[in-house]
Amino acid sequence: MTQHAYLFPGQGSQFVGMGKDLYCTNQHAQSLFQRANQILGFDITEWMFAGSEEGLQQTHIAQPAIFIHSTVLAATTPDFNPTMVAGHSLGELSALVASRILTFEAGLQLVITRSQAMQQACETQPGTMAAVLGLSDEIVQTTCAHIPSLVIPANYNCPGQIVISGTSEGVATACKQLQQAGAKKVIPLKVAGGFHSPLMKTAQAQLKQAIDKTTFQQGICPIYQNATGLPTDDPQQIQAQLLQQLISPVLWTQTIQHMIDDGATSFVECGPGKVLQGLVKKINNQVSVAGMA
Prior knowledge:
Malonyl-Coenzyme A Acyl Carrier Protein, domain 2; Alpha-Beta Plaits; six-stranded mixed sheet; four-stranded antiparallel sheet
């Protein structure tokens, strides 16, 4: 049986004009965009279709925008029938809606809480991130573990590409040591804070309150979650791992490998950009990869 694996992007994939063609050509899409505007209390469609790049980079704008684009695209695609799904960071919430574990409205409410909580955590616990290219997981892990200031591997994106996260001091120290260890490149990222690290602990507490009030249904397929890289269809497990994701690494390489081990031979990225398509090709160049945006 063909395994239809769908992937949903995270923050950083946004671009000005995202979703505009979909809005203009599909009546169901238009109604979902308008519903999102109502829930948010402002016209996010204006930011998405004609805003500035700088404005669209704000966490409380970018996260809902990517989520809306991704989930509306899935909802309006004929014969959308996933047998497995996964989402990178924020994209995990999009994947939960696409697999019908969450409704569109419930998912968007969680995205709003998540983005606001993360923004607040960045203000109270400042941090940063950097991409490290050309080193093994083990070298990055060992280097980070021996630095006194907080810094941890945050995104295992593909072999040879890891994002580290933590305090500015911890990340700066790690960057120097990783360059000395032979990294091809160490690239500071333009982010609001130290995502997927213990600096997001206060955001985790706020998100838990929202999750506890949200109905998680039995979905139509398993979701491979960031915190473990493994599939689950158990609503309680999904909730727990959705919380854990905020303060622990995104195990993306492991996620894709497990999906392939479970039969996935083709992947479709559902949402803005092509970031995940590129990562899948670097993880395994034998599978087919496509996008729909």
